[in-house]
Amino acid sequence: MNRRKLVAELKKQSETVWDIIVIGGGATGLGIALDGASRGYKILLLEQSDFAKATSSRSTKLVHGGVRYMAQGDLLLVMEALHERGLMLKNAPHLTFNQEFVIPIYTFWDALMYTVGLKFYDLLAGRLSMGKSYFINRAETLSRLPLLKADGLKGGVVYHDGQFDDSRMAFALAESCAEKGGIVLNYFKVTTLLKDERGRINGLKATDIASGEEFNLKANLVINATGIFADEVALMDNPDSKPTIRPSQGVHIVLDKSFLRSESAIMIPKTDDGRVLFAIPWYNEVVVGTTDTPLDKISLEPVALEKEINFILQTAEKYLIKPPRREDILCIFAGLRPLAANPDNPGSTKEVSRRHKITLSHSGLLTIIGGKWTTYRRMAEETIDRAINTGLLNKAKCVTANLKLTTLASNNLSERLHIYGDHYIDIERMISENPGLGLPIDSRLPYTKAEILWICRNEMPFNVEDILARRTRSLFLNARASAEIAPEVAGLMAIEFGYDRKWESDQIEAYDELVKSYI
Ligand SMILES: Cc1cc2nc3c(=O)[nH]c(=O)nc-3n(C[C@H](O)[C@H](O)[C@H](O)COP(=O)(O)OP(=O)(O)OC[C@H]3O[C@@H](n4cnc5c(N)ncnc54)[C@H](O)[C@@H]3O)c2cc1C
After folding, report:
1. Closest residue by CA, ligand 1 atom 15
2. What pLDDT is stored for residue 343 in this prediction?
3. What are the pLDDT digits (tens) for 184-216?
4. 201 φ, ψ to 5°?
5. What pLDDT is recorded for position 347?
6. Taking CB atoms and a 6 Å cutoff, what residues make up the pocket around ligand 1?
7. Which DSSP state fits 353?
8. Residue 166 CA, ligand 1 centroid: distance in Å
9. How many CB atoms lie within 10 A of CB 414?
10. In angstroms, rounded to a whole number, what is the distance separating the alpha carbons of residues 158 and 3?
11. Cα gap 161→138, rounded to integer Å
12. 273 — phi, psi (to 5°)?
């Protein structure tokens, strides 16, 4: 993917009437773009910032049915998500992993409830199950989780779920869509929806953030896949539309793996004050998080509240022998989830079912909100099917259930470079031709110079943050270390793209500023 070439292609196609223009380059929009392109539609996707900049790079990184939703009795959602979990692991083996979880058990009642409940979870997964769940005694629990506090512990329940790299998954979708002839562009902000004389949407205006150039684009169908920003696009369609979304913020902290010292993850579905707590190994570190807090402000760069961070630290301390302190945190990241606001009483909220919601406006704007990363494929299929069933698109069959995002098989993954899918061979070649490129860019981060260069040439980064936050996960794994390598990354980008010294220093300054809210 090369942004300059794709923009040139868009200009060449200025008279094209796209079958579908998708607004939003997160999990939902990219899933739809890939679904549409693989069915043979002419697809354009526009993302105002970077792909996965918003919620889709800030998830807990689980490919899961949702043990919690089962406790809430939402079995249909769990079954659907477990099926999608299986497909995602099959179709993207380079970005997904089988993760063992242990639920520590403190009462006889919990032992019974979680053992039976998780057996049922396995059953719902059917032939796509990732491994059986079972009860383990206290000694076995402590051998798997050596840093779990032992007070009152009766045992544990082991179960399996998937884990993944969310933003790299977004690039895998973008690339597959581009391979199928779709155009996917980051840093393209949709500003206006265009309508015909009957008031039906027939295109949109978008601004290329890189050049400031404005584009008028024609489409048979516009899909609003903008997540927490969906109300902003709804206002472009109908200035009288009422707010339907209130954001809820989930915060995670990343700690050194020495705080868990285990390959197993800890899941506590209900702490003694009724919250969730999880600690999950991820790329050699540990992601720790808990439940969400409702907020009033929607932002592309949400910032964790100090009280949320303290809450995670205090809750973790109750369960971990080595209590994490504020200064131990390698990264803090916050993500926003849309809650359904009551339009007649904006103060009150109820959670959108974690199931997605698809709506069609009078003027033909198809909007999809909610759902989960795990179910992105199914959401895309339903969105396009809905457009077909309402006569907005010609009939074509969905093929994504068996669409592989890499040709790598799970038993043929390169030690470390598998996250680039088939391209790991190109990166290995770069390193064999110039071994210096194979050295780690920083001893605290699992990335080499070769990867940074390969990313510049193939994954449309526009600024230093795009490389450090989403194409590599440096910012999320160790924010301070990522700030220290920002000058080198800016230098490499400047050489690759022909930028001047001023660009480099502006980038370093902007990145340093960004990092402040991640530490
Ligand atoms: C804290 C948290 C943890 C989560 N953990 C998990 C998990 O472990 N597993 C799981 O399956 N799911 C998880 N989820 C859910 C999952 O992350 C989301 O369902 C998913 O990322 C939503 O993707 P999206 O594309 O709808 O929204 P987003 O990722 O927010 O994408 C919307 C995009 O639209 C763009 N946009 C907005 N306006 C415009 C415009 N005018 N022009 C162009 N582009 C525009 C935005 O820039 C943005 O990139 C989690 C969610 C949260 C909040």
Report:
1. 372
2. 63
3. 999 999 999 999 999 999 999 999 999 999 999
4. -65, 130
5. 56
6. 23-29, 46-49, 53-56, 58-62, 64, 189-190, 225-229, 232-233, 250, 300, 335-337, 371-374
7. P
8. 10
9. 15
10. 45
11. 22
12. -105, 20
Q: How far is the CA of 24 from the centre of ligand 1 (A)?
A: 9
Q: Which atom of ligand 1 is nearest to the CA of 62?
A: 8
Rg (CA), the chain: 23
The string of pLDDT tens digits covering residues 304-348 is: 999 999 999 999 999 999 999 999 999 999 999 987 766 666 555
Half-sphere exposure of 206 (CA within 13 A, CB side): 30
Chain centroid to CA 240: 31
Residue with tokens 């110039």: 434
CA distance 337 to 250: 8
Q: Helix (H, G, I), strand (E, B), or coil: what is residue 155?
A: strand
Q: Among candidates 111, 145, 275, which has minimal Cα distance to 119?
A: 111
Select from 173, 184, 255 the least CA-distant residue to 42: 184
- The DSSP symbol for 153 reads -
Task: Dig out the tokens for 519 from the structure.
Answer: 């530490």
- And the tokens for 67? 């043990």
Q: Check residue 56 and report its DSSP letter.
A: G
Q: How many residues does the chain have?
A: 519
Q: Which atom of ligand 1 is nearest to the CA of 236?
A: 41
Helical axes 479-497 vs 449-458, angle rounded to 10°: 50
As given in the structure block, the two tokens for residue 45 are 């996707």
Please compute the mean of the pLDDT values over residues 460-467 and round it to a whole number. 98
